[in-house]
Amino acid sequence: MATSPDTVDSGSQNERKAISALYRDPSPDRGRPATTLPQAIPSGDVNLNAVLYAAAGVGPHPTVLLLHGLPGNEQNVDCAQSIRRAGWNVLAIHYRGSWGGPGTFSFVHCLEDAAAALSWLRATGLQSDLRIDPHRIVIIGHSMGGFVAAHTAAAHPEVIGTALISGVDLGRAFGRGSTDDATNVDDNIGVSAGLHILTGTSPRSLAHEAHSQGESWQLTSYAVRLADRPLLLITSDDGFADEGVALANATSRCGGATVSYTHLADDHSYSNSRIELQKLSLEWLATMGKPMSCDT
Question: Is the pTM of this model over 0.70?
Answer without folding.
Answer: yes
